[in-house]
Design goal:
Layout (H helix, E strand, L loop, with lengths): L3 E10 L3 H12 L4 E5 L6 H5 L5 E2 L8 E2 H12 L5 E4 L5 E5 L2 E5 L3 E10 L7 E2 L29 E5 L3 H10 L5 E5 L9 H12 L4 E3 L2 E9 L2 E9 L4 E5 L2 E4 L3 E2 L12 E2 L2 E3 L12 E3 L4 E2 L7 H19 L10 H4 L6
Parallel strand pairs: 1-2, 1-8, 2-5, 8-20, 10-11, 10-16, 11-12, 19-21
Antiparallel strand pairs: 3-4, 6-7, 7-8, 9-17, 13-14, 14-15, 18-19
Helix pairs in contact: 1-3, 1-6, 4-5
This protein binds flavin-adenine dinucleotide.
Flavin-adenine dinucleotide (FAD) binds next to helix 1, strand 2, helix 2 and helix 6.
Length: 338
Amino acid sequence: MTERRERTDVAIVGAGPVGLFAVFECGMLGMRSTVLDVLDRLGGQCAALYPEKPIYDIPGHPEIAAADLIDRLADQAAPFKPVFRLGAAVERLEEIPGGFLLATRDIEVEAGAVIIAAGVGAFGPNRPPLDNIEAYEGRSVFYLVTRREELRDRRVVIAGGGDSAVDWALALAGVAARVMVVHRRAKFRAAPESARRLEALAAEGRIELVVPYQLHALEGAGGTLSAIVVADLDGKTQRLDADVLLPFFGLSQNLGPIAQWGLALERNHIAVEPSTSMTSTRGIFAIGDIATYPGKLKLILSGFAEAALAAHAIHPLLHPGEALHFEYSTTKGVPGRG
Ligand code: FAD
């Protein structure tokens, strides 16, 4: 049941890095934004999946932790006083006279234009098919780790063979009491340098590689794990005493309600016109990971440029007949800064 309706110039779906930068770009052109995100915090993948990891390809930042990048983007957007609606999944998007209506369970937002910066959509982890795993989720089984300190002195089993599994094994060696990595192959699919470091730590006895094994069953009571049973390809089992299981089997990409909004899609992404980031519906734009066009690179920096293009394309729609003179930020300045 919708409780209230509010109005803004631009509604931004997704408070990931790209949605946050879109607030700045719209603000620089005098347009107010409301940002809606299903998560209860800012930052999208950066905050939810890898807050402590350093990112090396943000221009001007030779190295910046993902969480710090989000703090900086929020700070950069702040002068434009965005309205953040968090814990708010946008379920419906429809055209109304003079713009669009976005509906979440609790609020409706009317906007002159919409920017969809929804990343991979409603993203969720791929769960291993283990009996009763739901009983342990959030207590002993975690699909993401936001602070490695929470795992200090715990016995941790990591399952998976890709970058997330290997990166977390490296990050937790020396923090957790034991780090065991279960993978169904002897070879890991992670970046070669990370895989090499994993082998080195395993040789030193700081990480235990449990290969080739797969998860078989969980043991414990009341949501607290005591052991994880693994099985090899012949079905021979082994018991690993453990407090925590971190399964890293990738994310399922699901556009969720966005697929029903009548926009042209291309392989689970929103097709846009690359010079403006406009979707097949005039007034609705898509930027960042969710947007696709020939040559698209799924990088934060591409999303930043797309945010600038979208803001410049939205301005004439909201202010028809008003000339928009392109100006550098150095010329214009930012309210409340400098
Ligand atoms: P996201 O960060 O995915 O944010 C989208 C937001 O939209 C989410 O918060 C989601 O909850 C919300 N949302 C979705 N659907 C709805 C809805 N219906 N209603 C409300 N909210 C919704 N990129 C780089 O450039 N450099 C790197 O070094 C790098 N390293 C990475 C390392 C890892 C481990 C991972 C997983 C990714 C990495 N990336 C990197 C990719 C980068 O994180 C993404 O390109 C970036 O997060 C995309 O930003 P975005 O704002 O488009 O989407």
